[in-house]
Amino acid sequence: MSESSAPDASGGQRRTGWAELATGEHVKLARPLRRLGARLLDGLLIAVGLTVVLILFFGGLVASGAEGEAAVGIGFVGLLLVALIAGIGYEVTLTALWGQTLGKRMTGIKVINAANGGVPGWGKSLGRWAIPGLIPALIPFIGPFVALAVYASLMFDRVYQGWHDRAAGTLVITQ
């Protein structure tokens, strides 16, 4: 086989930017920098959306007359709920249904089920999001560093699977 189809002469897999699915199909893997670009675009889109929602939420909170510690507590819980809903609503839903968030679509990459090449579906998409998405919220102070390690782990894997991809059984490919 040629270099572009990935296997070497011994039948093993080299790090060539290609992976073989269980179906025998070869897919071109998305490189780490392209994935980072998609993540940054998604982060920007989510940040803009969350900013608008939070301005409306806190504006309503202030207008209702909430003050002091009660307002801070309500605001913190509201922030966590909005972030959770945004993560599930944006990333999980779009990945489950189409294999792409808007950032992935803009950078020409897609998440697939590593076994059959189809869209990941709800279970894989939720698992893939939960590992880096919930860790920062659940582990104070070091959670964001753990999430960063989850994403960085893809650079040390033969088929660019981060720990979240490996746990969910997904690959990220170019279109």
Summarize this, please?
The protein has helices at residues 32-63, 68-98, 102-107, 121-138, 143-152, 163-168; strands at 18-20, 26-28, 109-113, 170-174. With 175 residues, it is mainly alpha-helical.
* Strand content range: 5-15%
- Helix content class: 55-70%
Please tell me what the overall shape is.
elongated
Give the distance, in angstroms, between the N- and C-terminal Cα atoms.
22 Å
Query: What's the number of extended β-strand segments?
Result: 4
Helix-strand blueprint:
Blueprint lengths: L17 E3 L5 E3 L3 H32 L4 H31 L3 H6 L1 E5 L7 H18 L4 H10 L10 H6 L1 E5 L1
Antiparallel strand pairs: 1-2, 3-4
Give a description of the structure.
With 175 residues, the protein is mainly alpha-helical. The chain is 59% helix and 9% strand. Strand 1 and strand 2 form a beta hairpin. Helix 4 packs across helix 5. The N terminus is likely disordered.
List keywords for this structure.
single chain; 175 residues; mainly alpha; two-stranded antiparallel sheet; two-stranded antiparallel ribbon; 6 helices; 59% helix; elongated; disordered N terminus
